[in-house]
Specification:
The protein is an alpha+beta fold. It is about 35% helix and about 15% strand. It folds into four domains: about 45-490, Glycosyltransferase (Alpha/alpha barrel); about 495-595, Immunoglobulin-like; about 600-695, no CATH class; about 695-789, no CATH class. Bound molecules: 2-acetamido-2-deoxy-beta-D-glucopyranose (9 copies) and zinc ion (ZN). The site of one 2-acetamido-2-deoxy-beta-D-glucopyranose has 4 residues, from loops.
Length: about 800
Amino acid sequence: MARINNSLRAFVALAMSVVAVSASAPTNTAGDLGPGGTAPVRPFRLDQVQLGRGLLQEKRDRIKEFVQAYDERRFLVLFNNQAGRPNPDGVEVPGGWEEGGLLSGHWTGHYLTALSQAYADQGEDIFKTKLNWMVKEIATCQDIITARMNNSNGTKETNSNSTAANWVPTHPGYVGALPEDTVLRLGPPRWAVYGSDLSKNTWAPWYTQHKIMRGLLDAYYNTNNTQALDVVVKMANWAHLSLTVGDKNQPGYTGNLTRSDLNYMWDLYIAGEFGGANEVFPEIYQITGDPRHLETSKAFDNRESLFGAAVEDNDILVVPADKIPGRRRAQRLHANTHVPQFIGYMSVFEHSGEQEYFDAAKNFYGWVHPHRHFVHGGSGGNYPGSNSNSELFQNRDNIANAIAEDGAETCTTYNLLKLARNLFLHEHNATYMDNYERGLFNMIAGSRADESSTESPLLTYFQPLTPGSSREYENTGTCCGGSGMESHTKYQETVYLRSADGSALWVNLYIPSTLNWAEQGFTIEQETEFPRKDTAKFTITGDGPLNIKLRVPAWIRKGFQVTVNNSPLPDATVDPGTYLSLSRTWASGDVVEVRMPFTLRIERALDRPDTQALLWGPVLLQTLGAPPANQTYHQLSLYRHLKLDGDYARAAAVQVSSKGDPVFTFAGSDGNLTARPYYVGDTQAASAYFRRVEPNIVFGTFDTKIANRKRNDGLPRYDIPVANVTSPGNDGPTFLDIVWDSAPFETHDAFVGTVEDVVKSFVAQGAFTQEEGETIVKGATGAKDELEV
Ligand SMILES: *[C@@H]1O[C@H](CO)[C@@H](O)[C@H](O)[C@H]1NC(C)=O
Ligand SMILES: *[C@@H]1O[C@H](CO)[C@@H](O)[C@H](O)[C@H]1NC(C)=O
Ligand SMILES: *[C@@H]1O[C@H](CO)[C@@H](O)[C@H](O)[C@H]1NC(C)=O
Ligand SMILES: *[C@@H]1O[C@H](CO)[C@@H](O)[C@H](O)[C@H]1NC(C)=O
Ligand SMILES: *[C@@H]1O[C@H](CO)[C@@H](O)[C@H](O)[C@H]1NC(C)=O
Ligand SMILES: *[C@@H]1O[C@H](CO)[C@@H](O)[C@H](O)[C@H]1NC(C)=O
Ligand SMILES: *[C@@H]1O[C@H](CO)[C@@H](O)[C@H](O)[C@H]1NC(C)=O
Ligand SMILES: *[C@@H]1O[C@H](CO)[C@@H](O)[C@H](O)[C@H]1NC(C)=O
Ligand SMILES: *[C@@H]1O[C@H](CO)[C@@H](O)[C@H](O)[C@H]1NC(C)=O
Ligand SMILES: [Zn+2]
């Protein structure tokens, strides 16, 4: 029974009238809509870029096939239940976590985003038709639920799962797949915790609200659906009341939420992890001009622990058991739900201009990259002595000892890419795009199975790093299944960016695509088979001045070349990890060609340099098969193949698969090893890391017979101990590692000079005797022919 007294009625009426005014109020913050809309560098609308044929289009089309075939009515079943509306016979809930349990609604949000992105890309009506229908139905549910506030006969039933649901909301505007109560109970006076009891627990209610709101905003941005905007503004008004007035009809209610109450809520494991909820409200503030929405986004500032620590750059992602900040946070923080909080802080910064929000996001990103960053672009995992929840962040600087079977959740990478992109829009530091590219072409591309299905999204959850493990694809109704539907329908979103004044075009990614930049009168077509091939050709249509900034990837080792209309650039020196400016007055038909030779490289884990990965340009390679039973890792010895240019391609034979993917063969100690791109989406056992075994100092086939010792310097010290692992450990770089880090060598004399210098430092530290040092230098000198290119 709802008891709405007169004063409460007046309050509700007032709140509703504010809704009406604010929704039609003019925009009061300048800029374009959506993330980055007020930044100095801004995204294009998704429908301004079309993806061309290639690897990513193949992945996209498989997801589009699924999204298109899926019966959208299934997403409405739970919403209708909450609105007390009937459902058609035989239409089932999607399943997974979208089945009536406490995370329900999140997948509906992801699906809305995926539909609008799928539509933006090629404009097929089917996606818009499905989207419009869903938005209309959700709007109806919202209206029905809110209207119950005026019914005198509603009940306060909280876990209703039936078509007769008629619980009465506390505040107007709520809509979801679950009763409003599952959100409100997180706060005072009940402080619900994570669990599965529908009548008293909660899962991650604000995470869920965010997904639905994001889906509606994306529907508005990508397809101009104004009804979606109307629904999301009402949801935002509801959110404001829930986070200020709170659970006012609850016995024991003591008044508006305080900052302390909010801090207490957000520090709670899972239940309080609000994901990117704070991201949407500043955008709604921009659209409506209603400052309450900016206030709502700030309600999510976790000022008791994480937010303040991030502003101060005090890395507290994992803390010792006796030094846990705040009143009830866990020792280790959850990766996927905390990354998007900083995407939200970026949004607050973009619409309030308050620097501390930017600083928090930038500093947090710095804790993950490089300190917790695996070679495929992921983060998070277990380590010896930690609890066994690999969805959590590992301790700082732990890469080699955090390699886990079920670490590196795919949706964490989805969120890290968003954060890197948003930071780039403000700072234009190419490192963000190097990281974005790594995550996109490896983990994200690799998250989708290379087969078609209209039954399952065939997406990964964890992307295991334990050598010899295989990926699993399914994920209906999970976080990663949701963010995956999004990732594969927005491959065009970061290929190009533009300066706010339209004078510069940033070309960040080499992906076949066409940019239609009507505002500046340019169309730019990029033809490339990247990452299967290492060239790209841009054809410009349109006339006038424009500064085209081409990304020079950090992985370039040699021979990056750019020609304009077949003429090489006069000043041809380029720095990998920067942008190259082509600022000129362009004429229709101008052609820019880029050659960016891929090389075979290794990358070392920062805490254990003999734990390594093979990369081909931007592409991580995985060795196939499980390591032999007596070894944890595949082992490779590679230095004997190197010549003065230091090119690891000499260590492998390469072939091209029927798809055009490179396949390398290495002679391993346990037989030949096949290595192929990480993005190949099948279930073969494979390893992203191998163990480098270089027992002796060799120069080509010449073996000095002297052990290739380690100097044991420069290793990071774990902030939180790893059981049974000495920190910083004695796994430092070897003599040959240090020598070859200086490659390429112009001449054999230069090589010998480097060997002499490194020998000197090893002798000085007592790692070699004087005599051993002399033998090594003699070996290097004598190996002239061996090392000559
Ligand atoms: C809610 O409904 C779903 C099916 O629609 C069912 O699987 C689930 O068990 C129900 N939950 C409760 C608490 O009745
Ligand atoms: C309740 O009824 C009043 C009077 O008809 C109306 O002004 C108000 O908007 C209604 N409130 C809701 C939440 O529907
Ligand atoms: C009581 O609820 C039913 C449906 O739940 C509705 O049809 C009826 O109009 C309500 N009565 C009043 C007085 O609001
Ligand atoms: C949405 O509206 C804008 C401005 O009217 C227009 O430029 C854009 O093409 C429209 N987008 C879609 C997907 O209809
Ligand atoms: C409670 O919050 C609302 C805003 O949602 C505000 O209008 C009201 O003044 C607050 N009440 C108190 C006592 O602060
Ligand atoms: C540490 O080593 C001991 C002795 O080998 C072993 O019993 C224990 O399980 C190890 N601890 C962890 C966390 O691996
Ligand atoms: C870009 O970011 C990287 C990584 O944080 C940093 O090392 C580098 O100094 C930055 N570059 C510039 C130009 O700020
Ligand atoms: C594993 O066994 C093979 C074959 O017996 C042997 O060649 C190899 O050295 C062993 N590896 C290790 C790490 O013991
Ligand atoms: C290993 O690969 C090399 C080419 O890299 C080839 O010549 C050799 O036959 C292969 N060995 C086996 C056992 O397959
Ligand atoms: Zn996930």
